Amino acid sequence: HQLFATSPLLLMAHCEDTGIINQNIQNFKKKYKGQNDFPVRYHSRIRSTEACYASTALAVRMAEETGARLHVAHLSTAKELELFKSGPLEQKRITAEACIAHLMFSSEDYDSLGTKIKCNPAIKTVEDREALRQALTNGLIDVVATDHAPHLLEEKEGGALKAMSGMPMVQFSLVSMLELADNGVLPLARVAELMSHNPARLFHIDRRGFIREGYYADLVLVDPDANWQVREGRYYTKCGWTPMDERRFKWRVRRTLVNGRTAYVDGIVVDGVRGMELRFTDV
Q1: Which pTM value belongs to this model?
Q2: What count of other Cβ atoms lies within 10 Å of the Cβ of residue 86?
Q3: Active site positions, annotated
Q4: Is residue 90 left, alpha or beta, with left meaning phi > 0 and alpha meaning psi from -120 to 50?
Q5: What is the pLDDT of residues 7-24, one digit of tens each?
Q6: Which helix (H) or strand (E) holds 179?
Q7: Considering only CA atoms, which of 72, 28, 41 is closest in space to residue 54?
Q8: What are the two backbone dihedrals, phi and then psi, of residue 249, each rounded to the nearest 5 degrees?
Q9: Quick one: DSSP state of residue 8?
Q10: Each residue of 91-122: pLDDT tens digit?
């Protein structure tokens, strides 16, 4: 509580209640007579809705009591959304983020994708996924992020306890959101708001996040009619896999410019093009 009351900075929290998670693990071990791992489909019952909601509710309550500026990362449940208010990001003291994984997958995908979609917080139900998608346009979700975690496939071996959590998502984040826009989940312009404009506003990043005169030219050129299947393309993560293998996307990134310089074009990563450290305004 003291941290919330005294921090001069925005507080950003990944909210899951460790006590509830540990108790759920013990309950499963009792049920399965001391087993040290369980099928990955139980991951969302171990890192449960209750664990997420209890932690997020506590953080939101402390922020409300102290007036702290709070940003909650990786919302994964419909229930947590009840704790947030809609409206423009600039008018909020408490904001929220959703990840690509929780917008694209549900617990029904565990049987086909297994630990490839194991992440923290866990992938939840279809109903949770649909609520998060609705929150992209009703003002409850302010930012969409990737939570990119490029574990090696051997690190993903095991089940709900032993397999590492996280997946490589950054390469497919933009095309996934554009697909949701095509499917009527959100307007195309809202994709730029959630993935570019609002992150720059949230962290007061200097001269980034918008196409404006005098700003750094961080640009992505996309083809809306590429119609490609991921497994036929090349992965640009060193881990060499993705849970998106079976996906077919209409959209494809053709060129990426970083600070006005082409860093990627039609399958080629340009050597020697590097980013710059971000700078932040005092506002």
Answers
A1: 0.95
A2: 13
A3: 147
A4: alpha
A5: 999 999 999 999 999 999
A6: helix 170-182
A7: 72
A8: -115, 140
A9: S
A10: 999 999 999 999 999 999 999 999 999 999 99
